[in-house]
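Lab meeting, item 3. Inverse folding demo.
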């Protein structure tokens, strides 16, 4: 796991913003073809996929942190993809003090 994901959160963010950024990726599929310069390459096509993002916001401190992200399925921003992201948030990375506070959190979805 990357270092940013392993860090512990010392406090629960009062606001979690959920949003998606759509990106275009190249996906290899099928046979090898020869390009104009004579190179043999895999045939690729462009596909659009969402990156689902959960952003923790502390308005009083004027700071925000990316809590988690996930590359969405081919189907887009479907319910199952969002549920996977939300289930992954949990309290696994919270410090014991943050878990003990029992704070509630407001989730805001954009779009």
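The presenter then showed the designed sequence:
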């Amino acid at each position: 796991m990357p270092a940013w994901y392993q860090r512990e959160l010392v406090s629960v963010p009062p606001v979690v913003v959920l949003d998606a950024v759509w990106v275009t990726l190249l996906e290899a599929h099928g046979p090898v073809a020869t390009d104009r310069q004579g190179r043999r390459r895999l045939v690729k096509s462009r596909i659009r996929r969402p990156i689902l993002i959960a952003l923790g916001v502390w308005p009083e401190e004027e700071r925000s942190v990316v809590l988690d992200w996930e590359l969405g399925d081919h189907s887009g921003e479907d319910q199952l993809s969002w549920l996977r992201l939300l289930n992954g948030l949990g309290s696994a990375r919270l410090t014991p003090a943050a878990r003990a506070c029992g704070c509630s959190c407001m989730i805001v979805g954009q779009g």
